[in-house]
Amino acid sequence: MAQIEKIHAPGFWASVINTFSLFLRMGKKSRRTKVFFAISLLPVIIAAIVKLNHVFSSGGGREGIYIFSNIIMAFYLQFLILVLALFFGTSICSEELEGKTLTYLTTRPVPKSAIMLGKYAAYTLLIVFMVVLGVTLSFVLLNMNRLLDFSLYPIFFRDLGVLTLGMICYTAFFAFLGTFLKKSVLFGLLFSFGWENVIQYFPGTTQKFTIVHYLKSLLPGPSTGGFSFLLFRLEPSPTGVSIFMLLLITAVFLSLACLFFSKKEYILD
Amino acid sequence: MNTVIETDKLSKWYGNVLGLSDVSLKIKPGITGILGPNGAGKSTFLKLITGQIKPNIGTVRLLGQKIRNNYCLMSKIGFCPEQDAFFDEMTGWEFVTGLLKLNGMSNDEVRSRAKDSLEIVELINDKDRVIRSYSRGMRQRLKIAQAIAHKPEIIILDEPLNGLDPLGRRKIIRLIKEYKTEGKTIIISSHVLPEIEAITKKIILIHQGKIFAQGDIHYIRDLIESHPHMISINCSDPRKLAAKFIHKDFVLNVNFGTSQDSLLVETNNRDKFFGLLPSLFVEEKIDVFSITSPDDNLQAVFDYLIGS
Prior knowledge:
heterodimer, A: mainly alpha, B: alpha/beta, Rossmann fold, six-stranded mixed beta sheet, four-stranded antiparallel beta sheet, globular
């Protein structure tokens, strides 16, 4: 038998960065990204229509910041970030299995957990970019006449922060689902629009078993009337606790995703 | 010579289906051909020795180290998978450079090695085309390029000649032989005997998940030569041809086919048979339309050898 020799391979974080740059480049070109990029701009179209209506109705109707914080935020928070995180998060593992490309990655000197983390970071960055662009354009369109009013910007950045945290957390959860479920998208849809949308309205401790509870806890209580029901919440958790819980959920599910992906045997044929 | 790959009682099941059973082997530098019909367990064996799947029983050691979950060892391996799968939205250049980057090379090194490997497989002029626009042969060559780009010590090629035209096959065969002279270990699988025969004399026969025979190609050839072969000839005068064959000692049986111009000959010595055939056509002025060998495939040979 050949002598056992010390073999050099790139370090763990170098592998994460290499995987990240490979899949960021690939993700930017993918058809899926283009489709979801178009979907993520839907609220911009809504914002443009609202703005035009506002202009033609001689300034009547709700203020831009109200529409932004209630309608646009509700669309992003309760629909779009879930859908984006679901399709990008579950695909981290499933696209390699369905496309039978996992072989190319696992026959490289890269730990599987580095592949998971690198792809997670690349896909999360992609969806964060999509959402930030859509939210920014919507904000600018709706508040075009008040762009020099600096009191609006804390609201804008707070909302962006909440959405970003939501995407980081949901993508980690869906990445975990994708590592061991064959029909991860179906289960993800049930979780997103079943569990998350129902359990958050259960009083007491039960609501705290949802991610959206902690995200809504970071937003102020909904203003009364109009569309305020869209972002309705029960008993919010304190801001510090909410941020801690979101980061904890992310860390736990990302660790589990790395563990499952590393240990599970994937048969491609 | 040092053993590069060693397997001990290697066995793998997919549920109730046997993938590989009790395979103990020592593979040394040079070219080793893994030969077996489709579904014999060749790909399972290659996936096990590259640590992509885990054995139910037994062990695999590469360069003296356990392979499973030993990702560092992968820098020594170049693997060309059988499946025609790619990151389709990438260009050939992006595919090779992206995978090379995972080996931890600098950008300059990545560019230079990607260029070299794409030149070797003659894809350098098409490097900027997206992979989904490549032909089957080009995709096959691209898989080989990614396997050799990082100059690995061990090259494992699962059916690498599939989908290649005759010229492409010749070039890849020449390339594989060149690697042998560099002292590398090359394992190549195929279900086509002449393909393996053109590359190496050292072969392992796999059938139904078991090592059926291993050793020099001549030994295997001898086994195969004893297998009676059926040859179908379509020509202008099958009766005249049959009359010439009937008294030859290497011809076991002569039958006329369903169509008027066909003849079925069973021989136990293909070399003698094919040595005689062209001269008969010329001497007897017989026009030949086609010559096929209905049972000239590995499955038929295996079936004969195992007596089923």
